[in-house]
From TrEMBL:
Composition skew (Low complexity), residue ranges: 872-892
Species assigned in the record: Coregonus suidteri
Stretches the record annotates as Disordered: 461-489, 870-918
Gene Ontology MF terms: large conductance calcium-activated potassium channel activity
Full protein name: RCK N-terminal domain-containing protein
Pfam families given in the database record: BK_channel_a, Ion_trans_2, Slo-like_RCK, Slowpoke_C
PROSITE patterns for this protein: RCK_N (PS51201)
Primary location: membrane
């Protein structure tokens, strides 16, 4: 018998059982059960294998992705016997010390799989790091150090300063903005510029870190404007590059900044610097630009040339005005030198303050006298509100202007605390106080009846207190030495308009459409050109010589801004000084389009470096020689920017003149200056001017004012001074004497305008001769003055104050010596030097003693009845005692001995000693 199959079945009892299929029939039931059991066992084994495989598949990724699973599982070929127990954070620590190549050895991989995992992990990490390095470098490189956002502080204002941000511009701005003489400046300054600051500028920011922050960005980007919180800023100030090669491009950049800022926040107040006057018209095209809401454009060319033009009328005025709106600390000098008195005046600034109700109803001259005598304050102007028009700034108005409640006054003082006296003054509480420092705020509440009674009493006191000598100085009873008739004071506003028109010479005396400037029909440049021989035969005296360097490619200076103040309508036609331009004809042709409507303007083609040209225009007989250059911004070396102006100045000072030449030319029969009618005695160039000094025989005595770009170049103007090259501009002799002017002094106007926008209005009114926003709109339309008919309305615009310089030894102030103020033997001591320099003293102290050689700056009212020059000067000066405020004095540089001077001074006489030119 053959065995076909043997089945061994191990039962539960562990025993075995073998059967054959030989007895199939007999064991049929038992086999069926056997197969069923085998199948069940097989299925159970397969199910267990699948579950084990699933568990292994779940553990494998964990083991590969983390050393936790690898190290805790062990190697399979080691039957998982070499595993180690590691927590999750221990494995993180292992990865960190391994990737940083430190490897302390306290924790390490023991399994082979763990070590393989570390190898692949390090290789993958290095590959990923290498791929991310360029992106990391790019992110680090693009990250700005000053790329944060400004966090506004509650209760503290901030301003945004942008534009031309350099060490020089920022230091000048911060020096004036954060000056200690200002009231508590609780304003934070945020600078925004697209270029990161250099080390010096960064150090400057760190020195003022409590009030200054810098952010890198552009005002043309709205995101950057949001970073500096422009919507909550008190103002935005835009600085210009005064030394750029293309002024028009610089102005265009600043105008774009204004457009961007106004587009982001239309209500923000913007104060911007502009280089060229004609570019101001583009600001008017911005819909949200509103000068009534505080928006201002400080045109550097307009103000610079305006300052120089006023110096042609009163030498040294540019120095005085520049020192007034610049914040300077008081420097005390014990020695009796010119610096002592000059620096005392430099410490004065211009402030505004509301006048006390005690002044309501008083006339302006009365308030001026009261402020100076009682409060030791110099009041020069007010902001007047009339029923006819909006508020306007009136400089030294006449008796017809009565003070209103809440009138704003403009004062010259050393600090803001002194000006508070005008606000706190009370007749009832402070009438018997002699020390002005004791005038403090009182709780006195005066009724309207008491105010009216006070006004009436003070007016009566002023009238009864006038002594006979003071009446003479007021022009009421003064008799001239030669027995001339009495000069009576006439109020200009009482003069009918018809009489004014009848007294006008319609053929010569014409004005522009606003009535602010003298105007004439446009003339071709060929009609005003002079050859050297023609100029030598022309009677030129008391004129203004303008030496201009420029060519066909030079940027335009804007000579119209120089001529306009000299052609203001508050001068009579015969008082206008002839203007002679000496320079390149190609350049002057480009400027002539804006000059052809002004009278008494002539051109001598040539060069200011030619002595023949200078002698042809009688440089020794001029009232002022102005030296300008249009080529200053085209030179890279800062020390060479002013080379032409310096050479021209030194050339004139080294010239020698024959005293007989001027006399011969004055009596010659040559033709007159183009535009002048020599047959009329009123058209004499010196008619109405001041008495000239002795004949000039050396160029050192020729009155000169030189424009400089680089402040340090002022040391080259005077070879005989002892100024240190590092001396600040305002401390140098040329600037103190009014013979040098630099555009950098106008930087202080930015902060001055922010704190008080009325200061810019007053300065612009003084130096521009009457330029108004309405006139700027007309110039924006036509770029030229337009003539107009003489109507009572336009003629009324002539009635405004002008600056004059009067001598103490002659003219309206000559009678001061009759009152015992000066003795004949107390004159300025004589000097052997042929040149005596004068310097400016601003607002000298109350007890300051004058000398007969001093010259006084006066704000003189317009005289409608001035027919002759001497009568005009005398008549205007008679009203000057009560309505004219003297602002400075000019003294000679060699200090005068004052030890033997008389100490007694009448208080009424001291009112004429406000500002002197000695």
């Amino acid at each position: 018998m053959i065995l076909t199959k043997m089945l061994v079945y191990r039962g539960p009892d562990g025993g075995t059982r073998s059967e054959t299929f030989q007895n199939t029939r007999r064991h049929k039931k038992s086999c069926r059960e056997l197969f069923q059991n085998c199948y069940r066992v097989k299925m159970d084994q397969q199910q267990q294998a699948v579950e084990k495989e699933d568990r292994d598949n779940l553990c494998l990724p964990a083991s590969i992705s983390s050393p936790t699973g690898v190290e805790n599982s062990g190697d399979p070929w080691e039957n998982f016997q070499n595993s180690q127990s590691l927590s999750y954070w221990e494995c993180v620590y292992l990865l960190m010390v391994t990737m940083s190549t430190v490897g302390y050895g306290d924790v390490y991989a023991k399994t082979t799989l763990g070590r393989l995992f570390m190898v692949f992990f390090i290789l993958g990490g290095l590959a990923m790091f290498a791929s991310y390095v360029p992106e990391i470098i790019e992110l680090i490189g693009n990250r700005k150090k000053y790329g944060g956002s400004y966090s506004a502080v509650n209760g503290r204002k901030h301003i945004v300063v942008c534009g031309h941000i350099t060490l020089e511009s920022v230091s000048n701005f911060l020096k004036d903005f954060l000056h200690k003489d200002r009231d508590d400046v609780s304003v934070e300054i945020v600078f925004l510029h697209n270029i990161s600051p250099n080390l010096e500028l960064e150090a400057l920011f760190k020195r003022h870190f409590t009030q200054v922050e810098f952010y890198q960005g552009s005002v043309l980007n709205p995101h950057d404007l949001a970073r500096v919180k422009i919507e909550s800023a008190d103002a935005c100030l835009i600085l210009a590059n005064k030394y750029c090669a293309d002024p028009d491009a610089e102005d265009a950049s600043n105008i774009m900044r204004v457009i961007s800022i106004k587009n982001y926040h239309p209500k923000i107040r913007i104060i911007t610097q502009m280089l060229q006057y004609h570019n101001k018209a583009h600001l008017l095209n911005i819909p949200s630009w509103n000068w009534k809401e505080g928006d201002d454009a400080i045109c550097l060319a307009e103000l610079k040339l305006g300052f120089i033009a006023q110096s042609c009328l009163a030498q040294g005025l540019s120095t005085m005005l520049a020192n007034l709106f610049s914040m300077r600390s008081f420097i005390k000098i014990e020695e009796d030198t010119w610096q002592k008195y000059y620096l005392e005046g430099v410490a004065n600034e211009m402030y505004t303050e509301y006048l006390s109700s005690a002044f309501v109803g008083l006339s302006f001259p009365t308030i001026c006298e009261l402020c100076y005598v009682k409060l030791k304050l110099l009041l020069i102007a007010i902001e007047y509100k009339s029923d006819i028009r909006e508020s306007s700034t009136l400089i030294n108005p006449g008796n017809h202007v009565k003070m209103q409640e809440g009138t704003l006054g403009f004062f010259i003082a050393s600090d803001a605390k002194e000006v508070k006296r005008a606000l706190f003054y009370c007749k009832a509480c402070h009438d018997d106080i002699t020390d002005p420092k004791r005038i403090k705020k009182c709780g006195c509440k005066r009724s309207k009846n008491n105010i009216n009674g006070y006004i009436k009493s003070i007016e009566e006191e002023q009238q009864s207190a006038v002594s006979p000598k003071k009446k003479q100085r007021n022009g009421n009873t003064r008799n001239s030495p030669n027995g001339s008739p009495k000069m009576m004071r006439h109020d200009p506003l009482l003069m009918p308009g018809n009489e004014q028109i009848e007294n006008m010479d319609v053929n010569v005396k014409k004005y522009d459409s606003t009535g602010m400037f003298h105007w004439c029909q446009s003339k071709d440049i060929e009609k005003v050109m002079l050859t050297r021989s023609e100029a030598a035969m022309t009677v030129l005296s008391g004129h203004v010589v303008v030496c201009i360097f420029g060519d066909a490619k030079s940027a335009l200076v804007g000579l119209r801004n120089l001529v306009m103040p000299l052609r203001a309508s508050n001068f009579h036609y015969h008082e206008l000084k002839p203007i002679v331009f000496v320079g390149s004809l190609e350049y002057l042709k480009r400027e002539w389009e804006t000059l052809h409507n002004f009278p008494k303007v002539s051109i001598l083609p040539g060069t200011p470096l030619s002595r023949a040209d200078l002698r042809a225009v009688n440089i020794n007989l001029c009232d002022m020689c102005v030296i300008l250059s249009a080529n200053q911004s085209n030179i890279d070396d800062a020390s060479l920017q002013d080379k032409e102006c310096i050479l021209a100045s030194l050339n004139i000072k080294s010239m020698q003149f024959d005293d007989s030449i001027g006399v011969l030319q004055a009596t010659s029969q040559g033709f007159t200056l183009p535009g002048m009618d020599r047959s009329s005695p009123e058209n004499s160039p010196v008619h109405g001017g001041l008495a000239r000094q002795a004949s000039i025989t050396t160029g050192a005595n020729v009155p000169i004012i030189t424009e400089l770009v680089n402040d340090s170049n002022v040391q080259f103007l005077d070879q005989d001074d002892d100024d240190d090259p590092d001396t600040e501009l305002y401390l140098t002799q040329p600037f103190a004497c009014g013979t040098a002017f630099a555009v950098s002094v106008l930087d202080s106007l930015m902060s001055a305008t922010y704190f008080n926008d009325n200061i810019l209005t007053l300065i612009r009114t003084l130096v521009t001769g009457g330029a108004t926003p309405e006139l700027e709109g007309l110039l924006a339309e036509e770029n030229a003055l337009r003539g107009g008919y003489s109507t009572p309305q336009t003629l009324a615009n002539r009635d405004r104050c002008r600056v004059a310089q009067l001598a103490l030894y002659d003219g309206p102030f000559a009678d001061l010596g009759d009152g015992g103020c000066y003795d004949a033997h107390l004159n300025t001591q004589s000097h052997t030097s042929q040149c005596t320099k004068r310097y400016v003293i601003t607002n000298p102290p109350y007890g300051f003693e004058l000398v007969p050689s001093d010259l006084i700056f006066c704000l003189m009212q317009f005289d409608h009845n001035a027919g002759q020059s001497q009568a005009s000067l005398s008549h205007s000066s008679h009203s000057s005692h009560s309505s004219t405020k003297k602002s400075s004095s000019v003294h000679s540089i060699p200090a005068t001995n004052r030890t033997n001077r008389a100490k007694s001074r009448d208080s009424r006489d001291k009112q004429k000693k406000d500002l002197v030119y000695r």
